[in-house]
UniProtKB/TrEMBL annotation:
Its main location: membrane. Keywords: Cell membrane, Membrane, Transmembrane, Transmembrane helix. This is Membrane protein. The chain crosses the membrane at residues 292-315, 336-359, 371-394, 415-434, 446-466, 502-524, 743-770, 791-819, 839-859. It is found in: Cell membrane. GO terms for cellular component: plasma membrane. Belongs to the ABC-4 integral membrane protein family. It is a multi-pass membrane protein. One of its GO terms (molecular function) is transmembrane transporter activity. Residues 749-858 form the ABC3 transporter permease C-terminal domain. It comes from Actinoplanes siamensis. It comes from the Bacteria.
Length: 880
């Protein structure tokens, strides 16, 4: 009961400690779970978007030369699954046996051969019997002739009906097929159909346009008979990975399992899948996001831990007289600590448990080390106040000891510790740049704590550097009229007294600004990547357009300009310095009118009849020397290397060998004009469908001129596509881990802002009694309430300004200092735009500082009312 009465008496201080403990416990669990959940969602989305051939594990049967399948391998489906390395067996949602032929041309029986017939695969898949609904005819019952079923879509596209006869012509033979029925899937979304979709494919000769690619279903006898005739029938065992069971922490083990299955597949099989490549790329991004999240989380948790220590210090400072009385009556230091420990146990553990429970209720996946962090938070929250009470009980500050003077004259021990902290931060920065945040064995706690150490080092440097200019300012203020500025700056000049709040505030601001700087840097890099990949408002791509197509697109509504461009992959290049024939990306564009960020040697180039100036990549320039020749659409053009650069607009980032020619300076004959395959479109509000339609019309006209025959849109080998810069930029933010990345940034900045305000509030509450006594004495000399508030502003603004400057510089410098370890290139399509800071973010930091001053004034007003300043002179130290 005595403990409960003391808890009630000091409920405000204990409640503050409990709230901070519960908040810290929530910050340990809740945001991390949400970030992990978003990471898992991104992984599942990446896997879900993969084609069936890439995402599924498919084992193909290996047969001796000339041998074909007997279509009797369905019994191996469970056997192969059991032989898969863990954790693959538990992540499979569907498994099917397939016996099928390769793609072969199909023609109506008796029809004349065509240069590009439609193609089909003949498949026997037992599981499809329960997944189809017969809409015409019947299921196959092969006897003298192979019978097959076609889907409704395939029947319409191939113009087939029940009873039609086909000839399947393969390399080694031909098989007759009769259409026995037409079916529709019971559930079109069933994964069994994901590799049986009707599709369009290109003909061997692109001028022939497109052809249909279908799957025909047959029975076991039909597959065996047709396979014998065309000497082509292979077993396949297909296993679908269930993305809903896969989490990001399973990716390394899953990648190793797929690689092991590829190295040692089941007997007489080979593996076909690229899911391990997707998983490996995702894992690389997860490592980068995990490192960023760990840095932000370390900064936030360090700030929260600092606030807990400040709250414990506030609690014990307010109870100095009580502890002095206990010591005067013979109480031991441990008795004082035990007394405080009992009070804390009543409130704080329950608050930490509630905070953890709140974090557990957030959707997502917990980290495996979450219980350890929660235990650390609970230990800190429970022991902070008792340890602080023990230190206070041992401190000789109960009578006449000037702690402020002692603080202004730091001991050699303290200076040594501060110097060691600075060296520790500098050494950590060096190690992070040398090794990275994750050297393959998981995140290193020391290296993750380096940004916190760097911010603390910045606060130490500021702590030692600021008092001197503040004393100078105080001396200047002493010469001016009024004592408010002098008194406030004198209080601010005793900066070591505020070392705790200052350090916490610097860490919070550094964490928030680091998060914001990384956000701005990634955003600026993505903007640059979008400008390089889509150098206009939109890029139209196709096979070849007529030279007039750009003018036709430019005439469309809301289109300001359309510039034709040829981008030839693998163009033949001959250089003066190399006897070998080289290949590279060749771009031909009218650089003078394109309006792109090209070098002046291209935009100012004019035809002289000699070699044209060219911009060349560094690697290609080292091979070709000063110039050479390049083939463009079968015609050779001579060029000289006018400038070497690593990147030009319109080419993918990372292109190693490229050559850019100014079309306006090239000797292009009228009878052999350059046929563009790209059109750069500038404008706003244009209709993408209209542009695509005009582009396809240009492609059809180009084919008519080249072949003399008329084709339709569906016969185009490469239908026109329109990629806008905005859509490309949005796509950079909608990849697998971007959800976790965005959440990390937003949560980090919000948490840093809230904790910064809390640090200022605790700084105000810590100094409230001393300021209250000062204000009470000054009131007797005529100090008004408004002047009292100004006194607080003069005392706090330097502290906040120093924290903003020190934390801001630390937060802005951190991405540059540890940038190589963050691996931000994976989020920006490989483009690096340096370190940048959004002006709005800088304005937000200033707004936060102003808000902190407002919060401080409000709290000071509340504290003064509770302290009853009018009675301080009568009650003296009792109000302390």
């Amino acid at each position: 009961m005595i403990v409960l009465r003391r808890v009630r008496a000091f409920s405000g201080q204990l409640l503050l400690l409990a709230v901070l403990g519960g908040l810290t416990a929530f910050l340990v669990s809740g945001p991390a779970r949400l970030a992990n959940g978003r990471t898992d969602d991104g992984l599942r989305g990446d896997i879900r978007r993969l084609a069936a051939a890439n995402r599924d594990l498919t084992f193909s049967g290996v047969h001796v030369l000339g041998e074909i399948s007997s279509a009797t391998g369905a019994g191996r489906v469970p056997t192969i699954r059991q032989e898969l390395p863990g954790p693959l067996p538990g992540l499979i949602s569907g498994a099917w046996y397939i016996a099928e032929t390769g793609q072969a041309g199909i023609l109506p029986a008796g029809a004349a051969p065509r240069s590009c017939p439609d193609v089909a695969v003949l498949r026997y898949q037992p599981a499809t019997a329960a997944a189809i609904r017969v809409v015409a005819g019947r299921a196959p019952e092969s006897a003298q002739i192979t019978e097959a079923m076609v889907s409704e879509d395939a029947a319409q596209a191939l113009r087939l009906k029940v009873g039609d006869r086909l000839a399947m012509n393969a390399r080694w033979g031909s098989a007759p097929i009769r259409v026995a029925g037409v079916f529709a899937p019971v559930n079109p979304a069933d994964p069994i159909w994901s590799d049986q979709q009707l599709a369009k494919g290109g003909c061997p000769d692109p001028l022939d346009g497109l052809r249909e690619e279908a799957v025909l279903l047959t029975d076991q006898e039909g597959a065996r008979a047709a396979g014998s005739l065309i000497n082509d029938l292979t077993d396949r065992w297909r296993y679908r990975l269930d993305e809903n069971r896969i989490t990001a922490d399973q990716v390394p083990a899953l990648t190793r399992a797929v690689a092991e299955a590829r190295r040692t597949p089941p007997e007489k099989t080979t593996v076909q899948s690229s899911v391990d490549s997707t998983l490996a790329e995702f894992d690389r991004q997860v490592h980068a996001v995990r490192s960023l999240l760990a840095v932000v989380q370390a900064g936030i948790l360090a700030t929260a831990a600092g606030l807990i220590l400040l709250a414990a210090r506030l609690m014990t400072d307010r109870r100095r007289p009580e502890f002095a009385l206990l010591r005067a009556r013979g109480g031991a230091v441990r008795a004082v600590a035990a007394r405080t420990f009992q009070e804390v146990l009543v409130v704080v553990p329950a608050a930490v448990a509630i905070g953890w429970l709140g974090g557990m209720l957030t959707p997502g996946r917990a980290d495996h080390f979450e219980p350890v962090l929660i235990g650390g938070v609970a230990l800190l929250a429970v022991l902070a106040a008792p340890v602080s009470a023990a230190l206070v009980a041992r401190h000789p500050a109960f009578s006449g000891h000037r702690s402020d003077v002692a603080a202004l004259r730091p001991s050699p021990r303290r200076l040594t510790a501060e110097g060691f902290l600075v060296l520790l931060a500098a050494g950590g920065i060096y190690l992070v740049r040398l090794r990275g945040l994750d050297a393959g064995a998981g995140v290193d706690p020391y290296l993750i704590g380096v940004p916190v150490l760097f911010a603390l080092a910045a606060s130490v440097v500021a702590l030692r550097a600021v008092p001197v200019p503040l004393r100078w300012a105080g001396r200047l203020a002493a010469r001016a009229r009024g004592a408010i500025a002098f008194l406030g700056l004198s209080g601010a000049g005793r900066a070591p007294l505020h070392s705790g709040p200052l350090a916490v505030l610097v860490v919070a601001i550094a964490t928030g600004l680091f998060t914001g700087t990384v956000t701005s840097t990634i955003g600026a890099s993505r903007d640059r990547a979008a400008e390089l990949a889509v150098p206009a408002d939109a890029v139209v791509s196709g096979f070849y357009f007529t030279p007039e197509t750009a003018r036709q697109i430019a005439a469309l509504p809301h289109v300001r300009k359309a510039t034709p461009m040829l981008l030839a992959s693998g163009a033949t290049i001959r250089g003066e310095a190399s006897v070998n024939i080289l290949q590279g990306q060749t771009m031909v564009v009218d650089a003078a009118t394109a309006g792109l960020d090209f070098p002046a040697v291209l935009t100012g180039a004019r035809g002289t009849g000699g070699p044209v100036p060219a911009v060349v990549s560094p690697h290609l320039a080292g091979q070709i020397g000063a110039g050479g020749s390049v083939e463009v659409l079968g015609r050779s053009y001579k060029f000289t290397v006018a400038e070497v650069t690593g990147q030009v607009p319109g080419l993918p980032v990372g292109t190693r060998d490229f050559l850019v020619l100014p079309q306006q300076a090239m000797p292009i004959p009228d009878y052999q004009p350059v046929q563009p395959n790209r059109i750069l479109v500038d404008g706003a509000g244009f209709d993408v469908a209209q542009i695509r339609k005009a582009a396809d019309a240009g492609q059809r006209e180009q084919l008519r001129r080249a072949t003399g025959r008329v084709v339709e849109d569906h016969q185009l080998a490469v239908p026109a596509s329109v990629l806008t810069r905005d859509s490309y930029r949005s796509a950079l933010e909608n990849r697998g881990v971007d959800g976790a990345l965005s959440f990390t940034f937003v949560a980090g900045m919000i948490a840093a802002a809230v904790l910064s305000l809390t640090a200022v509030a605790l700084a105000v509450l810590t100094g409230a009694p001393a300021r209250g006594r000062t204000l009470s004495r000054l009131r007797t000399m005529g100090l008004s309430p408004g002047q009292g508030r100004r006194l607080l502003v003069f005392e706090l603004v330097p502290l906040i300004a120093v924290a903003v400057v020190a934390g801001g510089l630390a937060g802005f410098a951190l991405p540059a200092l540890i940038g190589p370890a963050l691996d931000l290139g994976g989020f920006t399509a490989g483009v690096s735009a340096g370190t940048s800071l959004d002006p709005w973010l800088a304005g937000g930091v200033l707004a936060l500082a102003v808000l902190a001053v407002i919060v401080a004034l409000a709290l000071e007003n509340v504290a003064n009312r509770r302290l009853r300043l009018g009675t301080v002179l009568r009650l003296g130290e009792e109000q302390s």
